[in-house]
Amino acid sequence: MRLFLAIDLPSSLSEGVAAVQALFEDAGGLRFTDPEQAHVTLKFLGETPPDRVSVVEDAVESAIDAAGVEQFDASVGGLGVFPSLDYIRVVWTGIDDGAVEMTRLHDAFERKTTTIGFDPENHDFSPHVTLARMNDARGKALVRRVVEHEDPNIGSFRVREVRLKKSELGPDGPEYETVSRFSL
């Protein structure tokens, strides 16, 4: 099963996510994420045998303790792209308040999961919510224009837990299911 660690956005912010996605609706080549499944990925684990889930859960508990992060407030807003405005693969909205805590959690998860055999990340961590993936460059000019000129504020929420999630790829995109919850 494909696993990752995430902070889910509450459903109260899904309308705000959808409204920001609407700024890009005329941009061809984009595949939008489901606003109801909006989340911040803290660590992608990838394919994991079911018999290793308990080992992962123990590592996550240990990492949360090591990070020393308690419940915190996070704000979602702004726009950006990965890897650059010249070559757009992902369109995202960022995390302002709460980014420090999310980075501490990510760093702790990175340390603990690599010690149990998972691959380390090959890029710097930047807490964000993916809005869309760019399949081709038809809408690149519009995406650039919106990212450069808009600064949306989606809203804030209280982060109370981290979730271990399973991702199943389907014809309509990925479907996510929570495997475990870890209170902060």
From TrEMBL:
EC numbers: 3.1.4.58
Location of the motif HXTX 2: 128-131
Keyword vocabulary terms for this entry: Hydrolase
Catalytic activity, as annotated: a 3'-end 2',3'-cyclophospho-ribonucleotide-RNA + H2O = a 3'-end 2'-phospho-ribonucleotide-RNA + H(+)
The keyword Hydrolase appears for this protein: yes
Active-site feature positions: 39 (proton donor), 128 (proton acceptor)
GO terms, molecular function: 2',3'-cyclic-nucleotide 3'-phosphodiesterase activity; RNA 2',3'-cyclic 3'-phosphodiesterase activity
Domain of life: Archaea
Gene3D superfamilies: Cyclic phosphodiesterase (3.90.1140.10)
Stored SUPFAM superfamilies: LigT-like
InterPro entries per the UniProt record, alphabetical: Cyclic_Pdiesterase, RNA_CPDase
UniProt short sequence motif HXTX 1, positions renumbered to this chain: 39-42
EC category name: hydrolase
Protein role: Hydrolyzes RNA 2',3'-cyclic phosphodiester to an RNA 2'-phosphomonoester.
Family designation: Belongs to the 2H phosphoesterase superfamily. ThpR family.
Protein name (database record): RNA 2',3'-cyclic phosphodiesterase
Taxonomic source organism: Haloferax litoreum
Phylogenetic lineage: Archaea, Methanobacteriati, Methanobacteriota, Stenosarchaea group, Halobacteria
